[in-house]
Amino acid sequence: MKIMPSVLPVMLLSAFSINASAADCGSFTIADMNWNSASLIAHVDQFILNNGYQCDAELIAGDSVPTGVSMIEKGKPDVAPELWTNGIKEALDKGVAEKRLRYAGKSLLDGGEEGFWVPAYLVKQYPEMATIEGVIKHADLFAHPESDTKHAFYGCPAGWTCQITAEHLFNALKLDESGFELIDPGSGAGLAGTISKAYDRNQAWFGYYWSPTPVLGKYNMVKVDFGTGADVEEYRNCTTQPDCVSPKVTMYPPSPVQTITTESFAQREPQAFEYFAKRGFTNQQMSTLLAWMEDNQADGEAAMYHFLEQYPKTWKAWVSSDVAAKIEKAL
């Protein structure tokens, strides 16, 4: 059959469209956040999507609040693999309502866990230490590093969101009236170091911490019960707000830790979006991986290979058998 010149471009365009629709995936960016669990997840996502789905996923530097704001205002990056959403929930919900963002799935299936903790060996010796009343009763055990008359409560490092919540709850519990002083550990490493030091010496320790973390993976800690349960409205409207003047006692509600994408990404990359909806880690899985990273001084990329090679049962549940085969071949 003779093809008329005017018909040829249409036929070529149709063929191109068929090939394009058959393509597995396109190009997009994933935020590589500046903390270990998020960096690990970002590298896992990149490897699985690039090798299993033939995507062109690029990692770019990210941070919690700046990344969320950038996704809302600029539409970049396309994916934030791990966001602790309580701190910026209002902005994220507004972004979803305005069809700029989508909640794709849970990064941490159990949600992030925050609280005031004491070592398990203390609770074994003094069972009442599992409650705030028991901690206050034994306040004299919590030695202050610089004072013989004060007791130590280790708070969250300055500049972190949890500095606000820990200080509000310290005040709501009136711990200063029991002789406690809120100590700024200076950094995340400094806070972890105080727990490690206490454990090595079998000493009392009391302070804020969160999970999943390598510290709570290595050291058996007990979350102190305030006896109030979690008041979500109080937590959102006061505990997390810097200008709250009359905080009330509440346990930390579980913190949703989610994968957020732009709306445009969700529409143009349905297969990748479906992967994000299925991908998630339990706190125990992540704590184990974080402990491995710390022990081996590994970055997110090294931890990604360790995870994919050592825990195939976990990640194969997120993908089809065909995709899993491609990933194994790439490994």
UniProtKB/TrEMBL annotation:
Signal sequence coordinates: 1-22
Keyword check for Electron transport: no
Record domain ABC-type glycine betaine transport system substrate-binding: where: 29-310
Domain of life, source organism: Bacteria
Keyword field contains Signal: yes
Pfam families according to UniProt: OpuAC
Coiled-coil segments on the chain, per record: none
Matching InterPro entries: ABC_Gly_betaine_transp_sub-bd (IPR007210)
Keyword terms of this UniProt record: Signal
Protein name: ABC transporter substrate-binding protein
